[in-house]
Automatic annotation (TrEMBL):
Keywords: Methyltransferase, Restriction system, S-adenosyl-L-methionine, Transferase. Pfam families: DNA_methylase (PF00145). PROSITE patterns: C5_MTASE_1, SAM_MT_C5. InterPro entries: C5-MTase, C5_DNA_meth_AS, C5_MeTfrase, SAM-dependent_MTases_sf. One of its GO terms (molecular function) is DNA (cytosine-5-)-methyltransferase activity. SUPFAM superfamilies: S-adenosyl-L-methionine-dependent methyltransferases. PANTHER family: TRNA (CYTOSINE(38)-C(5))-METHYLTRANSFERASE. Its EC number is 2.1.1.37. This is Cytosine-specific methyltransferase. Belongs to the class I-like SAM-binding methyltransferase superfamily. C5-methyltransferase family.
Length: 420
């Protein structure tokens, strides 16, 4: 069980600590959301719990009963001292509001903030992702979006709903494939929020395989719900490849965009590739990296034998070493995500292992990419904080969206909304 602590604030010379890694604590999330939204008209959705949270923290550090008035004064003090010291603060004068569902570590948020947007609600259930999200954006995401309590904190009158929702199988055999048929899936929760909040635009992202999932029935159900049940204009979804938007990673994802009928928008064009010729060398570490990223001789032999067995059967599975002038394979969770993106790096000077390995550190210069290199492959800037273990960092960046592709598409959405 993690016991990560952070200082709430210095009030009258006292430091108050809170546990920020609680998967389901809406008061924590309300507190951080209130600090970032007290000026933009959505604070009403967070103030009650924010006050109660501050009251609880003060009470834990005082022998006296804390009044609501004292909690309000403390909260105002905290607002005054919230200097947006995080790496990626919201714009001072935002052009639009959005919410960030299944937020992960904030790829959607980073992209839309770059375009002048203000995130007014975010949810993410994974505690390690929450830690990374808070370190970079200063907010603690709300938890499980399938819970009615979590949905109750979503404010009204935001412009864009963003969601990189996980794909699940729908049971639609013999039925129409409408709104009710998505119950039990995470898409149903997204659709339910769209139905209640009626955002001007929606921007959904998923794996490329969604197009052919269950022989195309899953995507057909999603589009039917968005178009017929919810009344949104939804152009044909498009497969977007990150490598066409300035990062050297072959990462194809399906993007689904939609506009509320009241916007009168009935046409949309996805962004054209930027044709930036990025190569792997552009994202590699400039200095020597730790020996822990270099493979052992035993591990390399295992990988080579595994690949040879598959090649003998006519399969293309196995490890891959990406040349410096090449393009990386998609970064994904699991060992093969790293093994299919090995690199040559002959700068290692200390071959003494610092982790338990079988065999010796290889002398061929074969290593895994570092988490920072994976971050760059996904378009995250170097001041994006990595505050978790390597294992969690690989998982988080593997699960994330490619920021440049998201931003290019979001820019097209915002252009449409600004012209209505």
């Amino acid at each position: 069980m993690l016991n990560e602590k952070t200082v709430l604030e210095n009030i009258d010379g006292q430091l108050f600590e809170i546990n920020i890694i609680e998967p389901e604590n809406p008061k924590q999330a309300s507190y951080s959301h209130y600090l970032h939204n007290h000026k933009n008209g959505v604070s009403q959705f967070f103030k009650k719990d924010a006050l109660n949270f501050v009251k609880e923290i003060l009470s834990e550090n005082s022998d006296n009963k804390i009044s609501t008035k004292a909690a309000e004064e403390a909260l105002q003090y905290l607002i005054f001292n919230n200097k947006n010291s995080v790496p990626f603060p919201a714009p001072e004068k935002p052009n639009f509001k959005f919410i960030d569902l299944f937020a992960g570590i904030g790829g959607f948020r980073l992209a839309l903030q770059n375009l002048g947007g203000k995130c007014v609600f975010t949810s993410e259930w994974d505690r390690y992702s929450k830690k990374t999200y808070r370190a970079n954006f200063g907010e603690i995401p709300f938890g499980d979006i399938t819970k009615p309590q979590t949905k109750s904190y979503i404010p009204d009158n935001f412009d864009v709903l963003c969601a990189g929702f996980p794909c699940q199988a729908f049971s639609i055999a013999g039925r129409r494939g409408g709104f009710e048929d998505t119950r039990g899936t995470l898409f149903f929760d997204v659709a339910e929020i769209i139905k209640k909040k009626q955002p001007k635009a929606i921007f959904l992202e998923n794996v490329k395989g969604l197009r052919n999932h269950d022989k195309g029935k899953t995507l057909a159900t999603i589009l039917n719900v968005l178009r017929e049940d919810l009344g949104y204009y939804v152009p044909e979804p498009q497969i977007i490849n990150a490598k066409e938007f300035g990062v050297p990673q072959n990462r194809e994802r399906i993007f689904i965009v939609g506009f509320h009928k009241d916007t009168k928008i009935t046409d949309f064009e996805y962004p054209e590739p930027t044709n930036k010729d990025a190569v792997l060398e552009d994202i590699l570490e400039e200095k020597e990296v730790s020996v822990k990223y270099y493979l052992s001789t035993t591990y390399i032999d295992t990988l080579r034998n595994h690949k040879a067995r598959h090649e003998s059967k006519g399969n293309g599975f196995g490890y891959e070493i990406i040349p410096n002038d090449g393009t990386a394979n998609a970064v994904v969770c699991g060992g093969m995500g790293r093994e299919r993106n090995l690199v040559y790096d002959d700068r290692l000077t200390n071959f003494k292992p610092i982790t338990n390995i079988s065999g010796e550190v290889n002398r061929e210069g074969i290593r895994k990419m570092t988490p920072r290199e994976w971050a760059r492959l996904q378009g995250f800037p170097d001041n994006f904080k990595i505050v978790v273990s390597d294992a969690q960092a690989y998982k988080q960046f593997g699960n994330s969206v490619a920021v440049p592709a998201i931003q290019a598409t979001a820019e097209k959405i915002i252009e449409k909304l600004q012209n209505i």
